Amino acid sequence: MTYGLRRRLASTVIVAGLVCAAAPALSAPAFAAQPTKAGTFATVADQPGPVDTDAAVRALEVQFANTHWSWTAWNDSTPVTDGSSQPNYQCAEFVARALAAAGLIPGLSPDAPQNDYFNYTAPNGKVYDLLLISDLPQYNNLYAYLMDSGIGEDVGDQPGEAQPGDIVVTYLGPNNTPSHTGLVAQAPTATSEATVDAHNNARLDYGYHFYAPSHLVKLVPNALLEVWTWTAEEELLHPTEVVTPSASPSAPSGQSKLVKLPAAPVDPAGPQV
Q1: Would you report the helix, strand and coil content of the chain in percent, each value rounded to 5?
Q2: Residue 17: is it exposed, middle or buried by C-beta count within 10 angstroms (0-12/13-18/19+)?
Q3: Digit-coded pLDDT (tens) for 107-155
Q4: Which residues span the domain enclosing 194?
Q5: Nearest by Cα to 123 from 106, 109, 108
Q6: How many domains does the chain have?
Q7: How many whole angstroms separate alpha carbon 144 and alpha carbon 154?
């Protein structure tokens, strides 16, 4: 299948998802817009008028970051004070949930349990630890997901290019490896640098250079289209295997029995800061 055809296929899926959010099969690309009282997110399809997906994606990421920067845990909105530790809701998880709130992690909700982020199976079949930004060779971390999915472009230390929704990765780990990450909340102006929201410790609108030395990972243009193009391509290359009914006594007659896969290894470092 040609690149152009894959693009058209993904574009069709996204447009359908945006205008037909009520259809379950197409709801994945329709992403959050306004939090409800229950803490869930409405879809862009609920909003009037045409949708600028780039602007909407970035706005939804920042909206999530600005409303969750002080949370104690992913399911505990009890606020901590500025600069306080959040050992149960660390930096990579915070950024990953902001991405999910904007539809940039297919199949993953911003309200999904922490284990779904720890063992996220992406459309390419790889398992990613989205709680991780540090380099551990046995794990595919959040940075690896940004690169593999095609939604992120590492432009190095370029703070002047920062836009809301871009990702900042700090390199203070062993041998100058990643050690921290945050989300750009405000673009730089003529008189001030870009600001960043982050977790562990809780930060709202801290200056970009507070996290130096850092690289800026920019969202590519049409990032939502990019990730769903990637999803469509991977699904065409690796169709989901059909599970046939099993005669096992543990499965009622006429129902399928899913094969239980081995549990993913436990990250010895735990969620990273």
Answers
A1: 30, 20, 50
A2: buried
A3: 999 999 999 999 999 999 999 999 999 999 899 999 999 999 999 999 9
A4: 54-222
A5: 106
A6: 1
A7: 11
For 68-118, what is each residue's pLDDT tens digit? 999 999 999 999 999 999 999 999 999 999 999 999 999 999 999 999 999
Tokens standing for residue 226:
């990019």
Q: Is the residue at 255 inside a domain?
A: no
Distance CA(26)–CA(131), nearest Å, equals 27
| Dist CA 196 CA 61 (whole Å) | 12
Q: Is residue 167 part of a domain?
A: yes
CA end-to-end span of the chain:
41
Per-residue tokens: 89? 């809701």
Token pair in block for residue 49:
């008028």
Evaluate whether residue 211 is within a structural domain.
yes
Contact 185, 63 (CB under 8 A): no
* C-alpha–C-alpha distance, residues 133 and 131, integer Å: 7
Tell me: the pLDDT tens digits for 247-271?
434 444 444 333 333 344 444 444 4
Cβ-based burial of 46 (10 A; exposed 0-12, middle 13-18, buried ≥19): exposed
Domain assignment present for residue 203? The answer is yes
